[in-house]
Amino acid sequence: MHIPSSDTVDIEVLTFEDALVSTNSDYDRSRWLYVPDFYSEYRYILGTRGERPLICIGINPSTAAPDDLDNTLKSVERIALFNGFDSFIMFNVYAQRATDPDDMERVCNPLLHEENMKAFEYVLRLSKEKPAVWAAWGNIIEKRSYLPDCVRSMIALGERYGATWYSAGRISKKGHPHHPLYLKKDTPLDAFDINGYLRLFEA
Q1: Which DSSP string do the residues of 28-46 spell out, in sequence order?
Q2: Nearest to 81 by CA among 187, 167, 180, 194
Q3: What is the pTM of this model?
Q4: 203 pLDDT more than 80
Q5: Pairwise CA distance, residues 43 & 61, whole Å
């Protein structure tokens, strides 16, 4: 369980560039990508290394770390492998850690968002082919009003790199892509109209 100790504006947040400098030897860095490489109030990236990663997008990080995946990330890894990817990267619309999304900060920290988008661009560039991005946040996106705007930033970056968006499992009654947790390991990916989806949030 992770309950934020404070809003992220009240703590020191490493830039993505600084957080990318890895010094932790507690895990296999040839296998894992973990930024920052220590447990903190935020996380930019957690995943495995490969040439064809599936980039899974949740809302915000919880407690997972290298060699200590939670059930959601275990599901993400299984589905990535089933769909022919050699690795997975767990990314999030917003980088603040909170096991319960109700504990997320009420106001977007512009610095944290900006650095998170730098991390997303880094992730997009890892793919040898066009990046495959899996929208997987469920109804949780409704928890904070700033989250759809964060997704818009991600779409703009994805377009630069020719990213293809997917969903997995049934779309919710409200139109949101399914969360990975309770999906079967052999769940296929489906094409997802991310721009059409964002019309749900237009006034």
Answers
A1: -TTTEEEESSS--SB-SEE
A2: 187
A3: 0.96
A4: no
A5: 6
